[in-house]
């Protein structure tokens, strides 16, 4: 087909657990010399996207276990810039809800295609997505150049002037580069002075409102940021970055119940990140909400998951000679399921951490932990051997004193 290289992708990915669409379009795409890769599971989708370069990806809005718009957000935050600039097409067999419409509009640069569809219906949408792809790549290149220039020269004024000259062609994306520069320079007041009047003139512009809330968060003005974030969350729910910001705002404003509610939402939206919940527990512990951390842990995590995660984390910290941090993590672990038999592993590593200090106080604390370990698992040979070593050291100290 003439112009195929310029106007149509050579290879596309379809992320959909419904196999009927692939069956409808696969043969027709082959006639257009377009290869169709099919991902019917999240693991397959993540593998294909990370291993293969695509200009265009079709994602089912109703995809499970990770919803399509959430998956798009994940990929737009990819560590490789080229993959952030994919042209995405949302395919759906249902009527689009108001909440989905809000998020689609906010994310921008998305095509929507109702199912079922034929290859003839798909081709012009692929062409539009290719145009979007080229536009996103050009913008990404400019953004990278500006930020790189600023990083090398630290000349904020010249960097800003370079962007302002191109504002007519860049439009709202140029504004995002400007406040991104201010953010990079930690000039949050200047960024707010730029965004504030613009958002006041266009109070429905989600991008500007998000930027305003972000700068307010940077400035510690959480009480001002919170209503903006809540308003946007209502209009366009399931924005991952905003959920994270709301969680932080609630923590800073001493609203742990609301914070936990958003944490639960994030956990549900992130089936690809099984350890994310432990970050949530840490955040609650850091803010002094131990009971909330334990409650959330019991609701989302098995006792063995708790032991495994905190054991591994504590061991790594101990090897790096960060004993106090390791002990803190072990203490957190024991609060979730204090009677769980496998906690003997935690108590054993607590003892090793105390022994690592090579002080009398450390050996005495290790002795107590080993007693608790052996109460839970009397046959644990490593603990018995450690106990003999500890008692020997303490006896020697007693004789010396």
Secondary-structure map with pairings?
Blueprint (H helix, E strand, L loop, with lengths): L3 H4 L3 E5 L4 H12 L3 E5 L2 H10 L4 E5 L7 H9 L4 H4 L2 E6 L5 H10 L2 E5 L4 H35 L2 H9 L2 H4 L1 H13 L3 H14 L4 H13 L3 H14 L4 H13 L3 H14 L6 H11 L3 H11 L2 H17 L3 H14 L7 H12 L4 H17 L4 H20 L1
Parallel strand pairs: 1-2, 1-3, 3-4, 4-5
Helix pairs in contact: 7-8, 7-10, 8-10, 10-11, 11-12, 12-13, 13-14, 14-15, 15-16, 16-17, 18-19, 18-20, 19-20, 20-21, 20-22, 21-22
Task: Compose a concise summary of this entry.
This protein has 401 residues and is α/β, with parallel strands linked by helices.
Short descriptors:
alpha/beta; 22 helices; 5 strands
N-to-C SSE string, H for helix and E for strand: HEHEHEHHEHEHHHHHHHHHHHHHHHH
- The helicity comes to 55-70%
Number of helices: 22
**Radius of gyration of CA atoms, rounded to a whole number:** 27 Å
Mean pLDDT: 94
Main sheet attributes: strand count, strand direction, barrel closure = 5 strands, parallel
Strand order of the largest sheet: 2-1-3-4-5
Low-pLDDT runs: none
Helix/strand-derived category reads alpha/beta
